[in-house]
Amino acid sequence: MKLLVTGGAGFIGSAVVRLAIARGHSVVNLDALTYAACLDNVASVADHPDYAFEQADIRDRAALDRIFATHRPDAVMHLAAESHVDRSIDGPADFIATNVTGTLQMLEAARAYWTAQGKPADFRFHHISTDEVFGSLPADPAIKFTETTAYDPRSPYAASKAGSDHLVRAWHETYGLPVVLTNCSNNYGPYHFPEKLVPVIILNALAGKPLPIYGDGSNVRDWLYVEDHADALLQVIAKGAVGRSYNIGGENERSNLDLVQMLCAILDDLRPKASGSYADQISFVPDRPGHDARYAIDPRRMRDELGWRPSVTIDQGLRLTAQWYLANESWWRPLQARQGVGTRLGTKA
Ligand SMILES: NC(=O)c1ccc[n+]([C@@H]2O[C@H](COP(=O)([O-])OP(=O)(O)OC[C@H]3O[C@@H](n4cnc5c(N)ncnc54)[C@H](O)[C@@H]3O)[C@@H](O)[C@H]2O)c1
């Protein structure tokens, strides 16, 4: 299959690109190369004959039309987005522009291309979204997000992703565009940009800096290893039913404080300090405005309809991730100099 992957120089998109090439697909990676992108993420496939890169902005309709016409993809996997909740609090406009208007342009370019091809039934527009569109769950472990949970976004980021989800469903209902949607939980793993929680904790720990925990650390997330997520996405594009959405989770609910303590224990094992534990560096900082208490995915549709389950536990995934950061300083060190990285964002509410 020839896949047009947007956001393929980012964290999850690059995992999709690497796995798709490994599985014999052709990939066109369309990315604007914002602050969050890193072409090193796809260096391992850059010279592969089935890989092409197009630097373009998803808001640029003319560029999208040219890329569709040039590469003639069988399917689109749309991951390009502004993705950091804290940045969305300080500057929501960029999130609406890319996540909502950019998705509109992607849908319109895809629809024009699909129509010109004679509306092939096996074309797919796969929209990758987040569980944050569903809002915040109570502590009761029996209550989780399903595919029919009502939308209730509470941050500018989540609202922009919710808007994009609604557009994708509308393009299916109104124009018949063959879409599939996925809403996943928090990802972690190799190539995670060093402004997100897991890499911040690993890199601050190694640097002897405080390990910042928002609020009291009780916020719960359902952690999904990025390479498992990439595998799930390729299953959905191959086998998912048109017009249907799938929630993808890691079956790994942990509070932020538990997660950080697990990472500290792993680092204590992999690279012990001269004395004490990395957990001694834990530091509680003021909470994120509107911080959702709990996200948790009911994974039954992915499991029962597509036969997919995550391959790693949180312990295994965090250990793999910590090992990767220990071995890849040349990847993360330059990214720490990028705008806003290493400073507290999301305080302008
Ligand atoms: N990271 C998570 O835990 C998570 C969880 C749920 C859903 N998602 C969704 O998955 C997708 C990928 O997330 P990620 O964590 O890999 O994000 P990321 O920020 O690491 O990467 C986003 C990529 O999109 C590109 N991009 C941004 N704006 C663009 C534009 N206007 N035109 C073209 N390219 C542009 C960036 O250059 C970057 O390479 C996003 O849609 C996000 O909402 C992420």
Automatic annotation (TrEMBL):
Record-linked InterPro entries: dTDP_Gluc_deHydtase, NAD(P)-bd_dom, NAD(P)-bd_dom_sf, Sc_DH/Rdtase_CS
Enzyme nomenclature, EC number: 4.2.1.46
Swiss-Prot/TrEMBL keywords: Lyase, NAD
Pfam families membership: GDP_Man_Dehyd
Molecular function via GO: dTDP-glucose 4,6-dehydratase activity
Cofactor(s) of this protein: NAD(+)
EC primary class: lyase
Single biological process term from Gene Ontology: nucleotide-sugar metabolic process
Reactions the enzyme catalyzes: dTDP-alpha-D-glucose = dTDP-4-dehydro-6-deoxy-alpha-D-glucose + H2O
Domain NAD(P)-binding: from-to ranges: 4-319
Family as reported in the entry's similarity comment: Belongs to the NAD(P)-dependent epimerase/dehydratase family. dTDP-glucose dehydratase subfamily.
Name this polypeptide is given: dTDP-glucose 4,6-dehydratase
Biological source species: Yoonia vestfoldensis
Lineage: Bacteria, Pseudomonadati, Pseudomonadota, Alphaproteobacteria, Rhodobacterales
